[in-house]
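Batch job 17 of 40 flagged for manual review because the log was empty.
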Amino acid sequence: MAEQYDLAFYQHLFNESLFLVLEQPAAAAPLPASLPMNIQPVSPPISGDTKPTKKFRVVGKNQKGLSLLFSLPQADFNVLPQNEFLTKILAAIQHAPDDVVYVNIQPNYALNIFDLKKEITVQHVVAFGKNLIDLAPGFNLNLYTPAVISDLPFLQAEPLATIENDVNRKKSLWNGLQVIFKK
């Protein structure tokens, strides 16, 4: 190698890590004859070919575009359509358990509304739990205060079990639902 590279100089020009690669002759060595003939070269997987692991599970017929967000253990999530208190809430806004879609979000994961909209039709969103939605930094939502996220009416409430045992929380939920559904 006749040229000397001053790496310190190049470090001022680039933010990325720099590596010095020495050129080597590109002579390809022939494969030994002792290899079995049925071995095929394996190409490395191309990034993007595999689907990312979903961080949420969607269940329901979604006949009216109402998405209910939860972060529950799987056993509790599976019985939500039969939950008596939730059925009463839905009846109050003229929805049946089949009219909605139930979305179970993995713990410590915040759902991106755009990812949800890619999967299902969404017209209204009610989140039963805090921090279930991925929001812009510095953007906070108050409990039971209706908001609009990505042109969707949105209401954030406490977990269903917390609301069920408190009259004041039930009233707050009802007031928020009335605004979202314009009753």
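Reviewer: the log was empty due to a logging misconfiguration, but the result itself is present. The radius of gyration is 27 Å. Unflagging and moving on to job 18.
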